[in-house]
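Aim 2 progress update. The chain analyzed this quarter is reproduced below.
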Amino acid sequence: MSTMDHKTPLLQTDGDGQPRAPPNVPGGGVPSAPPGAIAPPPYSGQGGYGGVVTQQPHVQPYGGYAQVNVKPPNYMVLNVFAAFCCCLLCGLMGLYMGSQSDTAWDNGDREQSLRHSQNAKKWGIGGIVGGSVTHLCSIVIIGVSFGVVYGSRSYLQ
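Predicted structure tokens:
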């Protein structure tokens, strides 16, 4: 019969509900390895896995709140869509602002990077809205002009 066949809990409670170690556990509550098993090495104080220590992200205090430095988005996909589908000029300006945002971030200028990122977003959204309105107006103008030209042919005859 092995030690795994027993159904007794590792920690039992006394009359007050306080945990107490069973009598077969040496060291007061830390069970030893079963016979024939290799016990893990004792804690050396070097850190969890082989002494590897990880570092938390850099956090700067700002007005009582923690501010984590995260690279702002450059909105390249939005501006490529705006350049190809809606308005070439606005899309290209948005792409330029997005690349300037990345350059400012690489140079360590967080505020300038945020400003360029916001401008890239404005150029992309403006290009999509402006291009869509322009396309709709041109469709209406072309439709009306064809209607006038081909609709008036019956009156000329």
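The chain has four helices and four strands. The chain has a mean pLDDT of 76. These observations will guide the mutagenesis experiments scheduled for the next reporting period.
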